[in-house]
Amino acid sequence: MKSLPYLLELGYELGFGPSVYDTMAELILAFREPDQNILFLYTDWDRKLDPHRDEMIQNDVKYFHADVIYDPEQAISRRVKEILLHHYAPKLDPNDNQTYMDELLTQFREAAYEELNEELLLKIGTAVHDMNSVYTLKDQNETTQVFVNSRLMFTNSTWLLTYDRPVNLKNILWYKVSTKEEIIQSFELTDWWFKCVILNADTPVEEYSFFLNYTEEHGDDHDGMVLYITPGSNDYFKEDVLPRLQNLLVDKLEIVR
């Protein structure tokens, strides 16, 4: 039976974002014994089952209409212009009507949002959202895909968090990081609000020694960054790991059970 998690309250004393990468990498390594592995998780989500999908599509078309969507390569704009051309002049070839498509986009943004065709807005919003969102590893850039896939150990749907498994969970990819440099690279390429397990080699993820969940919370009891530390069936946190954390964090350590 798993124990209740310890809570390490960090606030913002260590910094925020890249300024904490080095310290957090050392903190993770403090949990690992010499013969153990560190597995980070990357979650693939099902785009169509996202319970917030409709709301995000509505927001994205409004943001695109207001010209505040980040689109440095103009790929999203090109796709929207194709949708506009098909809506207003379906028989025209996009390759021969670039100037007209530019005019359609200008007219679209100049028009009052409330007066635009609802079906057209839905098509544009869906296209913008699908091109501007990341649901699976395949949506990431090539560097991130190679980093995760080259270190991949397991792919499953094992849910270790205390709240209910989301309906749009597709897969969880567990990949191994071995050094401080690899941990920092994982922060840079995926998410520095990390989740990882410390476990013995050739052990299923659910039989972890520690499950770490680093996130940001705001409430009456604490405010800022926190690390939830869930020990496995053999809880040696206080005896072995806590002294290492005390040496690492000195006066910045506050553990709450």
Automatic annotation (TrEMBL):
Name this protein carries in UniProt: Uncharacterized protein
The organism of origin for this protein: Paenibacillus roseopurpureus
